[in-house]
TrEMBL record:
<dbReference type="InterPro" id="IPR007894">
    <property type="entry name" value="MASE2"/>
</dbReference>
<feature type="domain" description="Guanylate cyclase">
    <location>
        <begin position="244"/>
        <end position="379"/>
    </location>
</feature>
<dbReference type="InterPro" id="IPR050697">
    <property type="entry name" value="Adenylyl/Guanylyl_Cyclase_3/4"/>
</dbReference>
<dbReference type="Pfam" id="PF00211">
    <property type="entry name" value="Guanylate_cyc"/>
</dbReference>
<dbReference type="GO" id="GO:0006171">
    <property type="term" value="P:cAMP biosynthetic process"/>
</dbReference>
<protein>
    <submittedName>
        <fullName>Adenylate cyclase</fullName>
        <ecNumber>4.6.1.1</ecNumber>
    </submittedName>
</protein>
<feature type="transmembrane region" description="Helical">
    <location>
        <begin position="138"/>
        <end position="159"/>
    </location>
</feature>
<keyword id="KW-0472">Membrane</keyword>
<keyword id="KW-1133">Transmembrane helix</keyword>
<keyword id="KW-0456">Lyase</keyword>
<dbReference type="InterPro" id="IPR029787">
    <property type="entry name" value="Nucleotide_cyclase"/>
</dbReference>
<dbReference type="GO" id="GO:0035556">
    <property type="term" value="P:intracellular signal transduction"/>
</dbReference>
<keyword id="KW-0812">Transmembrane</keyword>
<dbReference type="Pfam" id="PF05230">
    <property type="entry name" value="MASE2"/>
</dbReference>
<feature type="transmembrane region" description="Helical">
    <location>
        <begin position="101"/>
        <end position="126"/>
    </location>
</feature>
<dbReference type="GO" id="GO:0004016">
    <property type="term" value="F:adenylate cyclase activity"/>
</dbReference>
<dbReference type="InterPro" id="IPR001054">
    <property type="entry name" value="A/G_cyclase"/>
</dbReference>
């Protein structure tokens, strides 16, 4: 059973890894345009603007030094961010872009704020800031650029004319357009890749969840939940806890197995286990195992409502199972199963060792201890339809559940005889106000639980009882 637990934990922790591996194997991931390439395009465009401006007499000749700087700076920046101590600096990409904003602002000031080249440089810088760092990067980049622009313009002055020749303007706008288009293309490809990755991860996650739900069928829901949420680790460890332990089996099952075909017997047994499991889960029980026609359940782990409430929930479950078994027995009789099937149950409360037992590659989440042996012994001593409980269980439930003293028994592992008690019913259901009624004869069976009948069902039940009463009266008059 705990091998399924390990599988569940592996599914939960490796869903993302599986999705990433699937993306790597089946798609070509296209990263955003590297800063190195983007910087080369931007500074090459700037160098082209400078050359055009100098050739047309708009810029001064000494700005040719900026051409050399524009063509070499991308390589220097790449070397600084990849090969020096700066590579360990947090957010180095954003910091280097701030430096580009300072350089760009200084250059705009040096060319005297000539309109179209200045706007071209500004657009490339602002677009880069938005792509790399969003609004925050854009705001800080703008402040740095304006500050360096103001300092440069104050030092070198503003050009006499802010207009630029046609060729310089066209080259500036074309260079800016090329840079923005290339950057936008890479951003689009990145968005497509991220969308595809998200879709594949979602599909992988759904597959992992589906697999985990399949594996969860081998575990009690409480154990599965604690493993899948990370509350419990899958390793060999145990702890001492005070639990309420329940055992039950079907009296007469051996005789029935000799009468029925294996397929029909399997279907009946699975139906029985399914019905009893729903009752157990409704009361919060942890289903330990099914062995033959026996069921082992415990209360108090992995979650507990306190010793008294755990014991009360366990005994309440047993009473409900006994009632439900009467209804199931009537259904089986209508299907041709004549052998009366009864369950017998035993419950004990005390300290047990609970946890993972077994080997590293095959574990079983279960409980051991003398209280487990006592519950099993009580179940074997019980008469059909009887619920036997230990003294400690009785002491925790006696104020709400009526029990009958059954004397003492000797159990291996206990130094003294063990007092045992038979569960009668809830105290609230005793006397004339009880909600559950039963009456059974050959040809007649009635099991009434008035607490579970709705108003609409109540009218149907009354009508059925009146029809049955009329039929019996007619037959009695005829006699």
């Amino acid at each position: 059973m705990m091998s399924a637990q390990a599988d569940l934990r592996n599914v939960a922790s490796s869903a993302g890894k599986l999705a990433s591996a699937d993306i790597h194997d089946h798609t070509v991931a296209i990263p955003p345009m590297p800063d190195y390439n983007g910087r080369i395009i931007a500074y090459t465009a700037t160098a082209a603007i400078i050359v055009a401006g100098i050739l047309q007499g708009v810029f001064q000749q000494w700005l040719l030094w900026f051409v050399a700087g524009a063509l070499t700076w991308p390589h220097i920046a790449h070397l600084l961010t990849r090969r020096t101590f700066l590579r360990r600096s947090p957010r180095i990409r954003q910091k280097m872009l701030f430096l580009d904003c300072v350089i760009g602002g200084t250059f705009i000031g040096l060319i005297g704020l000539i309109a179209i080249p200045s706007v071209s440089i500004l657009l490339m810088l602002m677009f880069s800031c938005l792509i790399v760092g969003g609004i925050r990067q854009w705001l800080f980049g703008t402040v740095l650029m304006l500050a360096s622009l103001a300092a440069s313009a104050a030092t070198f002055g503003v050009a006499d004319s802010l207009q630029s020749p046609l060729l310089t303007s066209i080259l500036a706008l074309a260079s800016t357009g090329v840079y923005i288009c290339v950057t936008a293309y890479y951003s689009h490809q990145q968005a497509r890749t991220l969308l595809l990755a998200k879709t594949q991860i979602q599909n992988q996650r759904e597959q992992s969840i589906a697999l985990s739900h399949k594996l969860s069928k081998y575990l009690s829901p409480q154990v599965w939940q604690s493993i899948f949420t990370g509350e419990r680790d899958v390793r060999l460890e145990t702890q001492r806890k005070k639990l309420a332990v329940f055992f039950s089996d079907i009296k007469g099952f051996t005789e029935l197995s000799e009468e029925m075909e294996p397929e029909a017997l399997t279907e009946l047994l699975n139906h029985y286990f399914n019905e009893m499991s729903e009752v157990a889960l409704r009361y919060g029980g942890t289903i330990d195992k099914f062995v033959g026609d026996s069921i082992m359940i415990f209360f108090g782990d992995p979650t507990s409502r306190g010793q008294r409430e755990d014991a009360f929930a366990c005994v309440s479950m047993a009473i409900d199972m006994r009632k439900h078994m009467k209804i199931m027995r009537q259904k089986w009789r209508s299907q041709g199963i004549k052998t009366p099937l009864e369950i017998r149950m035993g419950i004990s409360t005390g300290y047990t060792t609970v946890g993972n037992f077994g080997a590293e590659n095959r574990m079983d989440y279960t409980i051991i201890g003398k209280e487990v042996n006592l519950a099993s012994r009580l179940e074997s001593l019980a008469e059909p339809g009887e619920i036997l409980v230990s003294y400690e269980t009785f002491s925790l439930i006696k104020d709400r559940i009526m029990c009958r003293d059954k004397g003492e028994i000797t159990v291996k592992g206990f130094g003294k005889p063990v007092p045992i008690y038979e569960v009668v019913d809830f105290r609230r259901d005793m006397g004339p106000n009880r909600s559950f009624l039963e009456h059974e004869h050959s040809g007649f069976a009635m099991y009434l639980d008035s607490d579970k009948i709705t108003e609409r069902e109540r009218r149907d039940v009354l009508a059925a009882l009146e029809d049955a009463a009329d039929r019996l009266r007619q037959e009695d008059d005829a006699d």
